[in-house]
Amino acid sequence: MTVPSPSTPDRPEPVVPVGAIPVLAVGSAPRRDVLAATGASPTYSTSSTPVGRDPSGVAVSKDGSRAYVANSTDRSVSVVNTATGALTTSIPVGGTPSAVAVDPSPGSSRAYVALKSTARVSVVDTSNNTVTATVSVGLSPTAVAVSPSGSRVYVANTAGGTVSVIDSAASKRIATVSVGLSPVALAVSSDGNRVYAALRGSDQIAVMDAAKNTVITRVRVGDAPQDIAITSDGTRLYAVNGAGSVSVIDTSSNRVVAQAIAVGPSPTAAAVSRDGSRVYVANGNDTVSVIDTSSATVIQTFSIDTTPELGGHDIAISADGSRLYVTDQRDAALRVVTVVPGINSPALTAGPSVGEPSSSTGAVSGSFTVRDLDGDPLTHTLTTPPGRGGVELTAVTGNLGTTYSYVYTPTLAARQQAALPFGVAWDNFTVTVRDPSRGAVDVSVTVPIDPLHATSSVTPIAVGDRPYQSVVSGDELWVVNAGGGVSVINRSTSVVVDSLPFSPGMLAASEDGTKIFLGYGGSGSVSVNSVSIVDTRTRSVTATITVPRGDPGAYNSGFALLPSPNGKKLYVLNQSDALVSVIDTTTNQVVSTSNLGYWSGDAAISRDGSRLYRTDAFGDIQVIDVTGAPKIVATVNVMPNSSSFEARAIAMSPDGKRALVLSVETMLGVNGAISVIDIDPQSPTYHTELRSGYVGWQDNIAVDFTTGRIFLSNVYVSNGEVFDIATLTRLGTFKPVGQLTVDSDGTLYVADPYTDTVYAMEFDDLSP
């Protein structure tokens, strides 16, 4: 509800309702005064002035001669002489003050005090330190802010979820705006057009149009925003989150533009320097965090109390930036922090950035920016040259400092060495930047060395939208595109010879090259509901078979289609449905369906067609006997000495004696491993892991058993890898990356969904 103003007893002002307001970007949270900048790398010394009990707010006069402290328990405002640090007087305000703000307009002598206990605001004449008026506002007012012109006063009413708008000339409330849950802090833009309210109850910042007194949007920030502070140019708003972080909001777009900046525990207040270069955050443990706004990082944290306790604080800055004023609720004191500027040595303000290596030369470009806050001219020296290449530097000086652009070029030998097993794929150098006073900053740059890849030729073949799977069928490669359609490539000419209007979830090819099997899922499902059989000669569907499904409401994560080597059967393995269906490809009928439990990852069939191998839900390999009704007959442990690895992909040798399994380390997600599994029924080590070797973070495998090469890739990793089957050592790398298929001629096909291209790759001799 809205409490009527005493000056207008006949009728209350209308509450402006909350409408359908968009909630924007996620981030985390600051609050009141916007004042002057400090020097670079300052030191801080603290003195104390006793004030009233439970000080809850502080503001500084326009000329900086007085600090006003709201004392909650004493129901007063202390006036402190900032030159001497002495308490000059105490003003009774008739209620429990929660916040204080000074009118910033020229010639004004007013301060406004929010009285939480009486739902009023006291107007103080600062020329004689007396209360001249009282204005009724909403329930539990906890923050107050004044427009730059001094014509409007805004009060955040926490219990009422509103902001009261006061006409300062008449000392009269003229509007009440519903803003959201528990507004606790306010800020006004320098042009007076926007008012911002921190909503502790909904983790948002409400943005008000000051001309219309309406909320135009809300910006989601971090947990329980306690305070907000805006830069003097109005371009950035800093929100202090009670969970110990600060969010940065671009006020032009009303979106969070940086990751939350971690500060101290239980922060309650913030202030921004007038030049916008620093944000000061008062933390609950009697410390202040100093944020450099150009890098959005905390550059200093200092204590304001020799015996710190956990409590609430507010903060303000003197006009010249030489002092901070921080209330200490637990000690009933105003901490006056003197800021002593440090030596303004050159400082790294941006970068170093590191670009992607050139695929032809391996050259890497990047830049970094160094700024001297005194504006001194800078010189640079390459103090530590790169050890595996050369670097060229170019310096350009602008308003924000000197930007150094570099081009690093590795030697041919370095690129060749980087492609070897355990090769060094990086280099570094250091540039020292100095000013005339001998201040200096060292900038170290680490650059990648692009391995000279093992491919002798790479042929790009444009296909459909986002290709993600391919199979070899006779002299063709069939490619399924996520955006719809199947592309057919002639492997001899590397030309797309057909684009077919099929949109399956997966495809498979018969070994004789006469049939393609297309697996289709239901609406919103990637498990198979039906299988269509395509004649590769006519490109026409000759049959469609409905496949049994389990729980139709189950989440479905994938499936596999496995034609038997003799072409008489097709096995359909649905993951979440847990069903294995057997299709007789002569009659095109489902002849059996077995529930064998959930699995995930990949599946393959033995060369004699008697067994299926699939990765189970726990990352091992399940062996399924399909000589009769499918049944699980064994489980093969993969990487048995490391519980953090899970099998993801399987490839079978043509002689039917070995399976190669690609595993991924699930704990860190940065390493992989290849395991060689004995699948020869006549071997004494049948169904055991024979050997294993570590690889990079890969999730796709293709094997050329003729040349003894294992190809691995991951669409989220820059380079694919080539390994030797016999030794499991890395032979080289390749790019681009994507889903892999290798044909009988040793050509590797890479389906890259990001470029809508299949790359046909030929490789040099990779003998280890």
Describe the protein's architecture and organization:
The structure is a single chain. With 768 residues, this protein is mainly beta. Among the domains are: 15-340, 7 Propeller (Methylamine Dehydrogenase, Chain H); 347-448, Immunoglobulin-like (Sandwich). The chain is built from 1 helix and 66 strands. The strands form 16 sheets. Strands 1-15-14-13-12 form a 5-stranded mixed sheet, with no helix packed on it. The radius of gyration is 35 Å and the shape is elongated. Mean pLDDT is 88; it is low at 1-39. This is YncE family protein. Keywords: Signal. Residues 40-50 have a biased composition (Polar residues). Residues 37-56 are annotated as: Disordered. Residues 61-339 form the YNCE-like beta-propeller domain.
- Overall outline: elongated
CA-to-CA gap between the ends? 81 Å
Q: Which strand order does the major sheet show?
A: 1-15-14-13-12
- Just give the CATH class of the domain at 15-340: Mainly Beta
The assigned structural class equals mainly beta
Helicity level:
under 10%
Global Rg: 35 Å
Q: How many H/I helical runs? A: 1
CATH superfamily of the domain at 15-340: YVTN repeat-like/Quinoprotein amine dehydrogenase
Low-confidence stretches: 1-39
CATH topology tier name of the domain at 15-340: Methylamine Dehydrogenase, Chain H
CATH architecture of the domain at 15-340: 7 Propeller
How many extended strands?
66
What is the arithmetic mean of pLDDT?
A: 88
Largest sheet: 5 strands, mixed
Q: What fraction of the residues are assigned to beta strands by DSSP?
A: over 45%
